[in-house]
Amino acid sequence: MAEDVAVPTGDARPGGSSSRAGRNLPLAIGVGLAMGAVILLALLTVRQTWILIVAVCAAIGIWEVFGALNRSAGIRLSRVPVLLGGQAMIWLSWPFGPEGILGALVVTVLGCFVWRMRLGAAGFVRDVGASMLVLVWIPMSMAFGAMLVVPADGTARVLTFLIIVICSDTGGYAAGVLFGKHPMAPKVSPKKSWEGLAGSMVLGATGASLCVALLLHGTWWYGLILGPVLVVTAVIGDLVESLVKRDLGIKDMGQTIPGHGGLMERLDSLVTSAPVAWILLFVFLPYAT
Asked: What confidence tier does 180 reach under pLDDT thresholds 50, 70, 90?
């Protein structure tokens, strides 16, 4: 989800509308706010609509990554099994929890093997391996994000998860632009800085503590654990997507969202943070099953 935190290297692009991260910042902010409004409306009306939103986003994300892998590397992927199995994992997480996710995962893995067999042995390991990567990376992880909404306080859990990741993004971007001088991972994402990571940690921990106390009515200092951990998973997600794009030699996974590129540009941090958010919130604030 996060844009690369910029290490200041010069002026913005001509025209004044692009940020130092290389995006049309006003358009990106506008689209982000519109997406946030749709999610907030869904959570405050029929909270289970969140599962539909997750399912749609997962399908788009899978399609984008599969397209990028096929166009850039010629990888022949098990599109149908992964798309159908991904939906099964997300929807089965609602009534059956982790058991539903695991069951759908096992069946989908077998489906990927059978689907790819029809094309012969050449490239079998590469193609099936890439399908498994996408399957675990996107729909399986997002299924845990869908489960956040299941308990009675599900709206608060989802909002806590989203707010922490947004705080991580915002704090990292602001601190990176204002103070960023020391690249954090120059071989992976040269625009990310240690100063940006510090900003993510501060704002992420602050946002988490406030959410735990005010939305979930828990002990505020849980946020001092939850926030930094989700900041780390969010940054890992951003770096993973950067590595995939760098390996494929592309700038964006797709062009789904104006001002952002592909939807995966917005999902990367959320995807890797969702399972950890579900686990930690369940540990700190368990609910009846």
From this structure: confident
Dihedral sign for Cα atoms in the order 131, 137, 140, 143: negative
Taking the C-alpha atoms of residue 61 and residue 151, their distance in angstroms, rounded to an integer, is 26
User: 73 versus 33: which is more confidently predicted?
Assistant: 73
The residues facing 24 across adjacent strands are 18
Given a contact cutoff of 8 angstroms between Cβ atoms, the answer to whether 198 and 234 are in contact is: no
Element of type H or E holding 185: strand 183-185
Separation in Å, CA 209 to CA 155, 173, 204, 206, 262: 17, 20, 9, 5, 31
Angle at 130 between CA 126 and CA 134, to 5 degrees: 175
CA 211 to mean position of chain CA atoms: 20
Mean pLDDT of the chain: 88
C-alpha–C-alpha distance, residues 61 and 27, integer Å? 21
CA distance 278 to 289: 14
What does 172-186 look like in DSSP terms, one character per residue?
A: HHHHHHHH--SEEET
Name 247's Cβ contacts closer than 8 Å, sequence gap at least 6. none
Give the three-state DSSP class for 191: strand
